[in-house]
Amino acid sequence: MFYTPYIKFLWKIVFFDKSITNPLTSVIFRCILFLFIGYIIKYKNSSATALHLQGGSNPQEDNPNEPIEITLVILLVTIIAFVSGKVPFSVISTGIILALILTGIKTPAEAFGGFINTNVVMFVAMFVIGAGLTKTPLIDKAQSLVIRYKDNMRMLIFLSCVAGAFLGAITSATATAAIMIPLLVGIANDIGVSRSKLLYPSMACANIATQMTFLGQGASNMAWNDVMMQAGAPTPLHIWDFTIARIPMLAIAILYMTFVGYKLMPDIPNEQFSDAAHTASESEKLSPFKRKLAVLIVLVSIAMMLLENVIGVKMYLTSCIGAAALVLTGVLTEREAINSIHQPTIFLFAGVLALSDAIQTTGAGDVVADWMIRLLGDTTNPYIIMLVFFLVPFILTQVMSNLATLTIFIPLVTSACIRMGVDPRAAVVGVITASCVSIMTPMAAPCQIMIIEPGGYTLKDYLKCGTPLALILIVVSVFFLPTLYPFA
Asked: Does pTM surpass 0.85?
């Protein structure tokens, strides 16, 4: 038929056929195609609404689940784009935002709101602080400490995992990534070890350590305990219960990464990265006074971020002040500061934030939660209960924010346990733990987005290294948590 060549051409564009030699043409046509599809969906909704105004039925009454269905389709397409490894991250993010707007799931202000999210603001500032870090002798000193392990990859992995876990436990995985990425990249460049081997193991351990203490993000632990108690739980959780429950998980994660995990990561030469040009000469461009000033600004900024709850100044404000100070004092030029900001990471995180929020606000997450309750039925087997209460939040946290997962599932599992007549402590701790095992996709956590470009990772790398660890942690949690906090 006459239209067959056009169908074949669209097929090649959508599925990134290598015969399309001009990548710009492919991207432009893909964007036009996705915009057209979004417009059709939007037009359909508008037509249905107009029909309702003329006396027809209400489209939302006819199909109240439509926003949920559209959101799940957008999520599926996003996952496919990540799996393909052929779509630029900025294109994925732009596609998410445009799809949410054109389908009416989000208003333009809501969809683009990720760009002014405080985490995104902090990322931008920390890229600048990281550039300032390369102007100091701190990386050289860190290099001198680890150079003895240059040929001992296991020890390098162990040290980076322990450092990441420690910072994650007292701050958050996001703050840890902002602090550790420039340090690990600089060390890897200087000692000739692939940064791809270091970044993911360290950030995975930071994720798993998050919320295991009462510091940093863990300050919210007792708030979740209050939610549990208000729902009718008979016994409260104490401040150190969260730490005790997480220690075995973290120990397993560090050992796994040290002996197994790093072997599953890609070994990409540092020379392939555009920021691999850190050399000692960069530090020598500054006078001795400015080098000391740079060290002071970087260390004070990091210290203030770690002490956020003590000093009462938010991390994004501290990082912005530090970034501005580096430019105002002449440690960095304006061009150096701007060039240090990795725009694809900012675009990607902003788009994922919008999608994550849509999953929560449309009720797509609640649909999965309701299915979880129905799945349990009348079972009283503690291990089956724990498996469901851990596995479902774990799966959802790979595509939506940790906070959204906690907000949805902690009240839900508490109510379910109360209705079943069992102690909800193991289930609540399980949900918190599951939400922190967000290591299997770039969408799972901000720190995973932050390392995907600096580490040169693809979704396959996350799945290859993260899946075995996740399965081990699921099994350990299912048997350990009901033993620590019996349901009976």
From this structure: no
